[in-house]
């Protein structure tokens, strides 16, 4: 019997996967995060390679290499704990095949070609990493612990070759390397205020201190932010300015002289940045970039290495708007690339003559609003007798990272999606729009209706060429079974697969992703009134069937058009006419408090967890959670009635001291506790994911290793709520004609009958969601994010049914219900993985939406990566599969039709001849 059940389950799993749907109905954006300017550069993956990759350490603590040809991620690695680190560093070296990172007290070397970890070392003492540089093939590390420490580490093993400690108490800022000397730049506090720049010289071979001197900077430098730049090759410099940006001071590291350059006061300078070459054999030239609110310009300086002097060579003219500069080298030549609105220019460092100029139409095609370049990196390759090849990777204010190849945008990466905070599905309003137009004509006079109809037909004719162009591709897609078509799908389809996933980001952007066109960006707009300087509240999103998206936060209310992202209007909500009392709840002072909407000060009920417990999360039942059946039909045709309460909220609380995790199921209207459970030996530092739907709840946690359980484990708990433990019984409320959630306060609260089971799973679950279909007829699927394997799994709910028989085989009636024997282990079947072979990294939230087809639910997961797909928990019972041969069917019908044309006259003649012969 067990073997038969196992074989049956295997057959169902095999049927659940369709090879032709993989990578066709789903989409994936493998993202890195916004690149940091000081940690982004072009670099060859090995010394023998002539081609370069783009390496970056993003603000999401992701190290990655990007192919500049197509923008694809070659490899990426996540630095654990680096998001909370005060500083994260990435460095490259000449003639080596590794890149090095430093963050959160950890130094690591990664193979530049494939991202393989070469070595990783932890600092012996607590401290913050300050500087990281390559010296030949070794690494020089600067960190602040009990004292300032400089180490030289072997580049191939990470072993410490020498160590220098400075116990002066000065704050280390950065390191620079020139020749055989390592320079440590520190900030020395003066008693009267201000900071002097201190430079300590260390012999790179022995690690011995060879010199030290102070630079007079206390009148300008008040904090580390006033230091503009440290580094550069072949001659290292340190530059600083005052808070008002009135003067620029530069010192050639190793000398005691400071060059001073006044800054023009015609415009208020907002920021200053320096760009110097990184290569050892390059010319000693650098560029200073000045940025104001509405303009930018630059100055190029030359260093006389023999005389140790700095002179201004020439100016680059002032241009309106924001701009960015990048430096690149080819042999000894130094090139400065300028990216501004409408133009990209390349200038050689020797003179102000423009080497190459390109006119830029747009950074990213289809991007609306202002897209200002924030920072850029470049690679200029001179070609004998021809124009140079220029590649510029520029980060835009919209959060897009684009590469410009010889004046044309080669690719763009929507890195702003890594800042997503909330998302919704928005339907395309094709049918509703036509209905509104017809309603206008119906209520207008005859002349007005006629004029309106003519205008509508003219607008339809404007779309005729586009419609005719798309028809052959749609017909071919229908025959071949291909759902995805080229370009953006801005029209709704009859199955409800074509929707937009609209994302709001923490940097004030609203981004729409077309779920029907491989996850392409449909539009990307700025929410008005966003400001980086003021606190920005993440807005709430609401989509309507009329084709608009409402965006609300404490700062305002905006309405956008779904199809184009165009802002339609801005205003405030009108007070709604209340037809009843709305009870809300919130977490305040470690308690969950219920109150009447708009009267937060008047508390209706309060829930307090056990003493010593802290509330971790609140998980409500979804507002739109349709239920097709109020009961579960048993194998003997009896019914177990489900406990269906739309006001359920699951409270998760933990006690760090006792390692206990507790869950409480509340009625959010009355505040009554309907169910509670506690688990001991829980690792409360790990995430506890939970979900509530229909009449069940599910949560997972991580068990600590100890004497009782030597192995660290992961548990998944499923609980179902019934009105009674007896079939055909509605419980204590079965005879009631009316029911109120507040009535139990004065009587029987009608607790549900709860059945639960626990499973041990192979890895941790960080987030949960549940599939959502139109009528709720389709079996639900639990969708879980697995951070250890960067995966997304869909677990059929029937595998988690807590009524599975324990310690025995299921009876015939239980088999008829689909119940299988309970096993404490729940291995994730390979067919459950929704992402297939993709690595979906950093998922923080999952949302689902129903399609028009009852069998299908749309899934959208976001965090660091963005992933979307369609799932059919009960298989595609209401639509033909892709394996259905439409061509064969049409050919069969055609053959039958042709056969009838020829056979019909022959049959008629035969009948006539038969009658004549009678």
Describe this protein with a few key phrases.
single chain, 918 residues, Lipocalin, Thrombin, subunit H, 60 strands
Describe it for me?
With 918 residues, this protein is mainly beta. Among the domains are: 25-167, Lipocalin (Beta Barrel); 422-571, Thrombin, subunit H (Beta Barrel); 609-732 and 749-843, no CATH class; 885-918. Helices cover 11% and strands 43% of the residues. The strands form 16 sheets. A 4-stranded antiparallel sheet has the order 1-60-59-58, with no helix packed on it. The protein has a 4-stranded antiparallel sheet with strand order 2-3-4-5, with no helix packed on it. A 4-stranded antiparallel sheet has the order 6-7-8-9, with no helix packed on it. Helix 2 (430-442) packs antiparallel against helix 3. It is globular and about 120 Å long.
Q: What is the terminal separation in angstroms?
A: 68 Å
Number of strands: 60
Largest sheet, in brief, is:
4 strands, antiparallel
Count of DSSP H/I helices: 6
Helices and strands: which structural class?
mainly beta
Give, in spatial order, the strands making up the sheet with the most strands: 1-60-59-58
């Amino acid at each position: 019997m067990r073997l038969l059940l196992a074989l049956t389950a295997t057959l169902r799993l095999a049927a659940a996967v369709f090879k032709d749907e993989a990578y066709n109905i789903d989409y994936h954006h493998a993202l890195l995060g916004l690149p940091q300017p000081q940690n982004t550069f072009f670099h060859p993956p090995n010394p023998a390679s002539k081609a370069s990759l783009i390496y970056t350490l993003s603000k999401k603590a992701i190290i990655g290499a990007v192919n500049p040809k197509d923008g694809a991620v070659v490899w990426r690695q996540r630095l654990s704990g680096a998001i909370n680190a005060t500083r994260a560093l990435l460095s490259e070296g000449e003639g080596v095949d590794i890149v090095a990172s430093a963050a959160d007290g950890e130094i690591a070397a990664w193979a530049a070609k494939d991202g393989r970890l070469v070595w990783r070392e932890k600092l012996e003492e607590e401290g913050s990493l300050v500087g990281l540089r390559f010296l030949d093939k070794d690494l020089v590390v600067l960190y602040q612990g009990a004292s300032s420490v400089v180490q030289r580490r072997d580049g191939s093993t990470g072993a410490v070759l020498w160590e220098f400690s400075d116990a002066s108490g000065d704050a280390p800022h950065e390191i620079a390397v020139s020749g055989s000397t390592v320079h440590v730049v520190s900030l020395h506090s003066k008693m009267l205020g201000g900071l002097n720049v201190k430079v300590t010289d260390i012999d790179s071979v022995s690690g011995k201190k060879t010199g030290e001197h102070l630079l007079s900077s206390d009148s300008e430098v008040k904090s580390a932010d006033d230091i503009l730049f440290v580094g550069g090759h072949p001659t290292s410099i340190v530059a600083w300015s005052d808070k008002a940006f009135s003067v620029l001071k530069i010192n050639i590291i190793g000398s005691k002289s400071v060059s001073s350059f006044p800054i023009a006061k015609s415009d208020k300078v907002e920021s200053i940045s320096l760009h110097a070459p990184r290569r050892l054999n390059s010319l000693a030239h650098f560029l200073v970039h000045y940025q104001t609110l509405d303009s930018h310009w630059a100055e190029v300086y030359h260093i006389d290495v023999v005389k140790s002097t700095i002179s201004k060579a020439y100016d680059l003219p002032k241009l309106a708007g924001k701009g960015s500069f990048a430096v690149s080298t080819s042999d000894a030549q130094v090139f400065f690339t300028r990216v501004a609105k409408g133009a990209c220019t390349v200038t050689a460092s020797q003179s102000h003559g423009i080497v190459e100029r390109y006119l830029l139409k747009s950074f990213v095609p289809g991007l609306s609003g202002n897209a200002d370049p924030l920072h850029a990196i470049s690679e200029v390759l001179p070609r004998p007798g021809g124009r140079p090849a220029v590649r510029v990777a520029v980060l835009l204010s919209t959060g897009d990272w684009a590469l410009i190849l010889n004046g044309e945008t080669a690719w763009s990466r929507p890195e702003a999606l890594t800042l997503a905070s909330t998302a919704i599905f928005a339907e395309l309003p094709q049918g509703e729009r036509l209905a509104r137009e017809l309603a206008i004509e119906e209520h207008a006079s005859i002349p007005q209706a006629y004029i309106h109809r003519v205008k509508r037909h003219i607008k339809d004719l404007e779309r005729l060429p586009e419609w005719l162009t798309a028809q052959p591709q749609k017909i071919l897609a229908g025959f071949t079974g291909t759902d995805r078509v080229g370009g953006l799908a801005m029209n709704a389809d009859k199955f409800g697969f074509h929707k937009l996933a609209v994302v709001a980001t923490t940097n004030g952007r609203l981004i729409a992703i077309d779920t029907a066109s491989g996850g392409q960006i449909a539009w990307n707009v700025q929410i008005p009134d966003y400001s980086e300087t003021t606190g920005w509240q993440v807005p709430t999103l609401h989509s309507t069937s009329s084709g608009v998206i409402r965006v609300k936060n404490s700062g305002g209310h905006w309405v956008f058009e779904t199809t184009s992202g165009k802002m339609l209007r801005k205003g405030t909500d009108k007070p709604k006419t209340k037809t009843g009392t709305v009870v809300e709840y919130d977490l305040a002072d470690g308690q969950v408090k219920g109150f009447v909407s708009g009267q937060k000060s008047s508390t209706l009920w309060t829930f307090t967890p056990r003493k010593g417990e802290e509330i971790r999360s609140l998980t409500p039942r979804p507002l739109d959670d349709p239920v097709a059946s109020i009961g579960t039909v048993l194998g003997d045709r009896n019914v177990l009635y489900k406990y269906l309460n739309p006001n359920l909220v699951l409270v998760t609380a933990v006690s760090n001291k006792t390692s206990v995790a507790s869950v409480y199921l509340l009625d959010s209207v009355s505040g009554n506790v309907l169910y509670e459970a506690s688990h001991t030996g829980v690792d409360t530092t790990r995430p506890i994911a939970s979900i509530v739907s229909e009449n069940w709840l599910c949560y997972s946690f991580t068990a600590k290793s100890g004497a009782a359980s030597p192995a660290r484990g992961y548990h998944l708990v499923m609980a179902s709520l019934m009105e009674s433990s007896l079939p055909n019984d509605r419980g204590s409320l079965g005879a009631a004609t009316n029911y109120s959630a507040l009535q139990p306060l004065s009587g029987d609260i009608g607790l549900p009958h709860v059945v639960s089971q626990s499973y041990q799973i192979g890895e941790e679950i960080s987030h949960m969601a549940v599939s959502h279909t139109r009528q709720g007829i389709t079996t639900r699927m639990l969708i879980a994010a697995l951070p250890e394997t960067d995966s997304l799994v869909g677990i059929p709910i029937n595998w988690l049914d807590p009524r599975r028989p324990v310690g025995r085989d299921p009876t015939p009636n239980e088999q008829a219900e689909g119940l299988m024997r309970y096993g404490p282990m729940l291995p994730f079947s390979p067919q459950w993985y929704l992402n297939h072979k993709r690595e979906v990294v950093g998922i923080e939230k999952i949302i689902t939406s129903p399609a028009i087809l009852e069998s299908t639910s749309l899934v959208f997961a976001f965090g660091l990566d963005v992933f979307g797909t369609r799932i059919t928990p009960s298989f595609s019972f209401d639509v033909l599969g892709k394996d259905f041969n439409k061509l064969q069917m049409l050919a069969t019908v055609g053959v039958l039709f042709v056969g009838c044309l020829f056979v019909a006259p022959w049959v008629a003649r035969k009948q006539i001849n038969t009658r004549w012969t009678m």
